[in-house]
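Help needed: design a sequence for this.
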């Protein structure tokens, strides 16, 4: 694809806060954005030039959307891979490729993919019925975690299995298809955010150290406490994933860091990521601009970090603190414009940074 000229229109499948921040970044580079979402009054729609509201399997609406845009990308990983494929089959430029979406949407395929590219994962097994689960617990042991293969997020769709005696209740609750994973007694969790351009240029942001509460990202700190070898290994793994897919855009991989520094891949997101929100103020090119650059066929921007970072999510009622945060000169406040606050819902985030002295 020829690099898109400013004034072109970028189509985004999905209307959440990631789409909103992508849209803002696109507008900074002179692009218009058109959102396709199945949700009325979405956070991304309110900052974008145009929005189509229709189900993701509405072929007519998708065709109409495709006619209005020059390239199409996604802002959440559960945009059906079939939607992306239908658009590609109809001749649209869709980035990332629907293969990457499909793999990331299924935890078993995702872990199998990591394993096939030589990236360590927790021991895992596909679960289609109770007998599979019993056999997998014998093989993998307990504690372990039973997860749904698809549609889990923010810690939803998973149950700890503490002993073989829990197996039946866990299966009754979650059903199939699932995946059983060994529980990893990690020292910390990290993520790497990386990008690849259509010309094959690759860029990495510094490793992010992530703390979760109730399965939801709560805080990201950069630099992470991981050692130099762990940082090198994360980049090498990310590069292999980008190359394996011939990926275009920003991609995130979440890892567990074990006490000996070894990295175990947990999951990947074929998109910008919550643990990369700090890049808006904390890096020379934000993850959102980087993604827009990549999907538009532009060269990637520099990922240099400008200081030490702490990003905190505002979940549910946390966002009610907005006036105190707005008055705090150390806090860069971002609110996503969601109409209703619910427990566990990401409403905004705050970035605090200590600039480098040099
Ligand atoms: N195999 C595992 N061992 C230890 N902790 C895990 C494991 N799988 C998930 N977790 C914990 O649960 C969190 C959410 O799980 P994850 O698989 O990343 O699902 P989600 O899609 O909800 O983010 C992880 O960030 C981690 O803290
Ligand atoms: Mg996760």
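Sure. Designed sequence:
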């Amino acid at each position: 694809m020829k690099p898109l000229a400013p004034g072109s229109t970028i189509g985004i499948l999905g209307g959440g806060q990631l789409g909103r921040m992508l849209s803002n970044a696109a507008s900074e580079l002179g692009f218009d954005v058109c959102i396709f979402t199945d949700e009325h009054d979405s956070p991304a729609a309110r900052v974008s030039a145009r929005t189509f509201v229709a189900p993701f399997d509405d072929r007519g609406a998708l065709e109409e959307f495709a006619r209005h845009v020059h390239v199409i990308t996604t802002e959440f990983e559960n945009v059906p891979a079939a939607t992306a494929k239908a658009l590609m089959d109809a001749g649209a430029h869709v980035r990332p490729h629907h293969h990457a979406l499909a793999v990331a949407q299924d935890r078993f395929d995702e872990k199998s993919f990591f394993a096939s590219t030589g990236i360590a994962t927790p021991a895992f097994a596909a679960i289609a019925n109770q007998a599979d689960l019993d056999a997998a617990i014998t093989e993998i042991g307990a504690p372990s975690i039973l997860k749904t293969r698809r549609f889990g997020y923010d810690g939803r769709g998973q149950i700890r299995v503490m002993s073989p005696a829990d197996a039946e209740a866990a299966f009754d609750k979650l059903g199939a298809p699932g995946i059983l994973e060994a529980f990893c007694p990690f020292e910390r969790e990290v993520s790497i955010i990386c990008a690849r351009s259509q010309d094959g240029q690759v860029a990495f942001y510094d490793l992010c150290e992530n703390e979760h509460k109730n399965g939801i990202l709560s805080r990201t700190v950069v630099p992470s406490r991981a050692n130099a070898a762990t940082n090198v290994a994360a980049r090498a793994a990310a590069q292999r994933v980008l190359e394996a897919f011939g990926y275009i855009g920003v991609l995130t991989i979440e890892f567990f860091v074990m006490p000996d520094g070894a990295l175990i891949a947990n999951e990947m997101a074929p998109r910008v990521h919550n643990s990369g929100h700090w890049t808006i103020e904390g890096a020379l090119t934000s993850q959102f601009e980087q993604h827009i650059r990549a999907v538009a066929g532009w060269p990637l921007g520099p990922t240099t970090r400008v200081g030490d970072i702490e990003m905190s999510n505002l979940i549910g009622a946390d966002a009610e603190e907005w006036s105190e945060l707005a008055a705090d000169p150390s806090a860069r406040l971002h609110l996503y414009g969601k109409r209703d606050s619910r427990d566990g819902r990401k409403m905004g985030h705050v970035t605090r940074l200590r600039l480098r002295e040099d």
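The pocket of adenosine-5'-diphosphate (ligand 1) is lined by residues 122, 145, 152-155, 181, 183-184, 189, 212, 215, 254, 266-267 (CB under 6 Å).
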